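Technical annex, item 7. During the second reporting period the consortium partners agreed on a shared format for inverse folding records so that results from different sites could be compared directly. Each record opens with the tokenized structure and is followed by the designed sequence. A conforming record, contributed by the partner at site C, is shown below for reference.
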């Protein structure tokens, strides 16, 4: 690694922001792909997508038609959504088509709202949860590496950002209702296994929703984001005014603890989990920097968690230094922990690495 000094003659240059976003995308992609071969897209396997843009458009329209046709068929929607996600991962053209399309973002936000409403009302089932996971995975794919897309900006800001706000609100749903267990069998072993499976589902939800909230927070904190209807302050206020704030943050901190500490083998985290650590702490950092209300809330409620359990060295010992994301994690964790433990930022300009000026 080498540090490079870059100078800009214009105060209005967009290049620093572009470089910053490119760096964030690189962190995600290079970490996820560390020591693994990229999976083949289901679309490419069955020849739905060809390299020709014209053929891609035709096959994309066919897939969209099926998605709209099977809108009320949960199992088929899961299959089609996973297919679209795989295509987006393999072909950037498909992401472009997704954001150019007038319907798909609306359709998927509406579907996701239905899923989270069912969870809130404790009317969920496994198929509904799996559809929600598929949709979250799709949104992460279409947000990644699409910063320069004007079509994405138009979709997110359409109708005064109403759907973008709805998506964010849905991601903040408290999944505590998933933990409302009902004894279905006299077999205690079977009931315990059911509880463990449900808890794993809750953890997976927290991991995926927080990763997607990280994408949204990153978009809203960029200078290029100029919409007045949904800004970073509104994003922070959604956390502050959360109807079930205690339950949500209890699950958030528990998920972070389970991710980083509670592993008897103390195995190194895989690349995906290392990236989750980065995204969890990034969300915490964003909250602590921008909200005194939430800073006081987190310090009052979780001070002991950070003092005795979420300590820097044990967490860092679980993340291989070879992962590209590692170089950004130590300072991030230190900053968050210092704010929580001492109630103030840890500012030391002399020790700050130059590359952090881009983030």
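Designed sequence (site C submission):
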């Amino acid at each position: 690694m080498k540090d490079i000094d870059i100078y800009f003659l214009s105060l209005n240059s967009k290049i620093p922001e572009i470089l910053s976003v490119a760096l964030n995308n690189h962190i995600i992609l290079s970490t996820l792909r560390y020591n693994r071969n990229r999976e083949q897209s289901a679309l490419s396997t069955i020849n739905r997508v060809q390299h020709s843009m014209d053929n891609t458009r035709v096959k994309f329209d066919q897939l969209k038609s099926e998605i709209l046709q099977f809108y009320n068929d949960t199992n088929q929607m899961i299959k089609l959504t996973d297919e679209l996600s795989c295509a987006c991962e393999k072909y950037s053209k498909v992401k472009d088509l997704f954001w150019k399309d007038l319907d798909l973002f609306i359709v998927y936000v509406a579907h996701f709202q239905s899923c989270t409403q069912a969870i809130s009302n404790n009317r969920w089932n496994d198929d509904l949860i799996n559809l929600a996971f598929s949709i979250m995975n799709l949104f992460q794919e279409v947000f990644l590496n699409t910063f320069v897309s004007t079509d994405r900006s138009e979709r997110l800001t359409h109708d005064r950002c109403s759907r973008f706000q709805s998506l964010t609100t849905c991601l903040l749903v408290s999944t505590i209702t998933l933990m409302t267990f009902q004894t279905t069998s006299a077999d205690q072993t079977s009931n315990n296994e059911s509880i463990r499976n449900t808890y794993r589902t809750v953890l997976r939800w927290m991991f995926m929703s927080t990763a997607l909230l990280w994408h949204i927070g990153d978009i809203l904190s960029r200078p290029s984001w100029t919409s007045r209807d949904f800004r970073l302050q509104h994003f922070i206020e959604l956390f502050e005014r959360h109807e079930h704030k205690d339950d949500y943050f209890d699950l958030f901190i528990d998920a972070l603890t389970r991710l980083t500490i509670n592993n008897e083998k103390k195995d190194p985290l895989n690349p995906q989990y290392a990236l989750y650590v980065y995204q969890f702490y990034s969300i915490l950092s964003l909250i602590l920097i921008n909200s005194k209300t939430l800073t006081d809330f987190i310090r009052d409620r979780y001070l002991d968690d950070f003092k005795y359990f979420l300590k820097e060295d044990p967490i860092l010992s679980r993340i291989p230094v070879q992962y590209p994301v590692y170089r950004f994690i130590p300072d991030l964790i230190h900053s968050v922990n210092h704010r929580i433990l001492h109630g103030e930022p840890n500012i030391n300009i002399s020790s700050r690495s130059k590359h952090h000026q881009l983030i």
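Residues 53 and 119 are 40 Å apart (CA to CA). Residues 188-220 form the longest helix (33 residues). All partners now use this format for quarterly exchanges.
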